[in-house]
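Problem 3 from the worked examples.
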Amino acid sequence: MRRVVVTAICLAAATGAHAHDWYENKVDPVTNFKCCGGTDCRPIPQSSVQARADGGYVYLPDGFHIPPDRVQESPDGRYHICESHYVITNQPYLRCFFAPRLKLSLAR
């Protein structure tokens, strides 16, 4: 029985790590800072995101206004956010944001 429990825990840990592997090598296109420092990134529900007319988004829980040049394409068709907190104030700040598809302008 103990072996089954240990195996289940190991599988759960490996699955969780694999699910977040794609965040590891991502950087914000504007700041060039890494998106993930371990537990900074997660999928978020579509209901927590509001599209803006300029191609950016608002992340409603934290009130982040995300300009279009910081929006990256999500590989799984879901919204994802990477955020950390300032040490002294504990205020959240945006590291990276991923949306189901990028709205690219070809007129440059």
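Problem 4, a separate protein:
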Amino acid sequence: MSRNLGASAAPSADHATAAAPRRRLGLTLALLAFAQLIISIDYNIVYVALPEIGSGLGFSAQNLQWVISAYAVAFGGFLLLGGRASDLFGPRRMFALGLALYAGSSLLGGLAADPGTLIAARAVQGVGGAFLFPATLTLVSTSFAEGKERNRAFAVWGTAGGSGMILGSLLGGVLTDAFGWASVFYVNVPLAGAAALLSFRLIAPDAPRTGDRPSFDLAGALTSTVGITALVFTLVQGPESGWTSPVVLGAALAGVVLLAAFVAVELRSAHPLLPLRLFRNRNLTTGTVITFLYMGTFGTLLYFLTVYFQGVHGYGPMTTGLAFLVPMAAIAAGSQTAGRLATRHGIRPIMIASLVVGGAGAVLVALTMSTGASYLALVPGLIVLGLGQGAGYTLMFGAAALGVPAEDQGIASGVASTSQQIGGAVGLALLVAVANSGLEGLSGEALRSATTDGLRTAVLLAVGGIALTALAALGLRKPPAREVAEHTSAESRPVVHV
């Protein structure tokens, strides 16, 4: 009997041993998704608090936008540096650093007593995001085998990211109404601080640094960071100051010159910040284009819906947040569904299908917009839009990571996320100009009607951009078998479809 018990206990012990790493990976993924949730919430939580921030700290009408813009400029400008830092110094270290910067700058923002302090805090938050976002992407890409495991991980990560953008609006309304504007900063302190501490327990240690590790490309870091920062500043400040104003033209010129110098530096560098050979990877190049176009179209729709709810129908912060619960649920469902379908049918067809579905939803939303439309009339379009938007967000970063060596995942993530930031800035600048044309001098019902017409036109133009994104997705391809073998775990080598 004892022999039988021993025989039956051995498989059980083996099963327990095998289950332990899976549980740890599950906890790791939960932490990475939580970090992405923090980034996404912080992106939008400040919007609904802007009026109270402006009156509480004495911002001028011209300067209030920099509560948002300081974050966007710093985030976009430092992403390449943050991505390469993950490759050189380790993604866990950069993950913890980014969260620490988030926690500290959020505390500073909540304590701010003047506009300058708050703008500086938001800029530091942006730098924290620039280290945290590519580190999170790198950890997802390198912790999970290419194929089913990685698709499922990106589905969880994408659900957190897509839902967090809308949850930020809801949470911002609740906190601002209940506790005042400072609470939208204080809420990040315990969340980011706890995640930073947990990273040392739940994420595998970074590989020890050796003498063979490439040296840091200081010239490339300076030219790329300052150049991209100047370019993002141009895109953010152009609509406010005018595209021909000296400050905007000067920033644009500086950005172009510095980025040209960056390319020259990288061509000559033995250890470049951004190895240009990476762009031979068709999936990275195509994924970067998809990310740029996605954020320039889908990424702007939350803004236009917020204007529609508040400017046309007069919703308050709390009501606006509640109105986004329906698309948030649809985004979560789309993200989860996309991961399973991509494993079965490949990333390329599901990416294209998600764009078609999301574009159809955007058309429905645009055609339903009117000054007298009820919220219920918008719901079908919001659901279809959310399903496609959530699926596309999940897949676009996974597509860019296909076939990229593990040692370059950080900079590849930085490239994709930089295109995300610039694409969103370009798309919003162009579509806001369209939406706001013809509103000067109007008031009352005439203003509401013209605003609705402008928003409808902007959304339909975004649909045209979504169609271009679907065409770009045709460029995705299946990685060569050699690449799949190199970047897939020995225990499980699932078939990778594109």
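Solution to problem 4. The two ends are 53 Å apart (CA to CA). Confidence is low (pLDDT under 50) at residues 1-18, 481-498.
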